[in-house]
Amino acid sequence: MPEHDLVVIGAGPGGYVAAIRAAQLGMNVACVEFENALGGTCLRIGCIPSKALLEASELYRMAQHHLAEFGVGVEGVKLDLATMMKRKDGVVSSLTNGIAGLFRKNKITRYLGRGRIVAPGKVAVEGTQPIELTAKKILIATGSRSAPLKGVEIDGSLIGTSTEALAYPEVPKHLVVIGAGVIGLELGCVWARLGSKVTVLEYLDRILPGMDTEIATEAQKILQKQGLEFRLGMRVTGARVVNGKCVVECDGQAPIECDRVLLAVGRLPNTDDIGLEKLNVARNQRGFITIDPHSFETSIPGIYAIGDCVPGAMLAHKAEEEGIACAEGMAGKYCHVNYDAIPGVVYTDPEIASVGKTEEQLKDSGIPYRKGIFPFIANGRAKAIGRTEGRVKILAHAETDRVLGVHIIGAHAGDLIAEAAAAIEFGASSEDIARTSHAHPTLAEAIKEAAFAVDGRTIHL
Ligand code: FAD
Ligand code: NAD
Q1: How many Å is the Cα radius of gyration of the chain?
Q2: Ligand 2: which residue has its CA nearest to atom 43?
């Protein structure tokens, strides 16, 4: 029976990063993964393929509708969906192969099969080559899957989840998206840019729940202008295929007929069938494994859990941070993740990015704050590149000036937010940001100006 210091179950961004860090720290590490390709949801059917399609579809939209404004004439712009998909698949396989290379470099043993914890310190690998492993420590990083919705009959083709929406063989004439969350907006935008009529049905009276409301409201306006139709306050009760067409039913509304349906109402943790019931590993009501936040240890000593299968934001970089902290904790080092400094980005165009507290959260907890806003329309670089929509919003403590939250909607917001995350991580004040020299002309100057605005002294507005 092979013996390892650490057996990781799942090779997503949580699991593979933890495995690499633990190997760097001298542990003899194994990773059990049932998919042939390493990298998890993120690399295979999540972050990476969606961003490849977002980029490609945006180029198509630019060529069709916006290059002429720049004096660049292009005629006969055509969509070659098969090539777009092939490129996406190539990006995915080059990255998943890269993880296999990193495993070899770090001498991590890879087992192909389904991992199940049969006892503390024992993992069975089920599959074509079953084997039992012993481990001083076990790390569960089994991630998540799309949540079903009662009445919505997923057929894995016309009615499907994000996985199908990353590979439609044709541009649907009418796509109905259920859920105006991150997946619904990103993949809704991809297909709208490629020519679909996209209707987004959302149960709540707003899009992007959890995001700062002011920014989400602006996002809705901009995306509507791009052609997305939002129908808010819609409770979807069913969806099925009838005579080759999809029919979506909502409470109190006429049924909607469409060509494809994307169900995107959240994700559920993969915590069934991995042996947790038998060992009595504690989980919360929604099935997420409960952990000690200072060690990532579950209720059973020697068994740890990170990433999408534990409570918190379901983000690849959050899973990675936890993977590193957990491996370092196992090696007796500092084990800490600052959840206040984990950014979130929605890769629509413009991008929407945020870190720290929203204005609603500050109001709800009675924290006094000052707010600085700077619109991109007053930023020179934004004008030069023709991307003037959106704004930067900084929320700082009213007494200490410490930066508590930064919210950006605008071109490259996902890259700009890194400065704000660093500011929050270092406990910076808005004055610190305002005093930092930002190169001219850059979009980042809008962050400096928003920091000035906290103190009511913007220069360029
Ligand atoms: P996962 O990536 O889900 O990996 C878990 C792995 O465990 C999988 O490979 C699975 O096959 C394996 N596994 C499960 N059970 C077993 C078992 N019993 N035995 C062996 N192996 C097992 N996040 C971002 O931060 N940015 C984005 O842009 C982004 N875009 C996304 C787009 C889409 C369409 C989706 C669906 C998600 C996106 N996410 C994004 C979320 C991100 O993919 C997840 O937060 C991240 O993958 C979680 O990492 P993880 O390691 O916890 O789990
Ligand atoms: P989500 O939680 O972001 O959004 C789900 C939406 O569906 C919510 O707005 C919710 O109100 C709505 N909804 C729920 N039930 C409904 C119903 N019956 N009818 C209509 N609407 C309903 O979930 P998601 O978009 O599926 O994404 C899942 C996870 O994947 C998220 O946690 C996200 O963090 C992660 N993800 C991240 C990125 C990124 O970081 N760019 C991209 C994609 C996915």
Answers
A1: 23
A2: 183
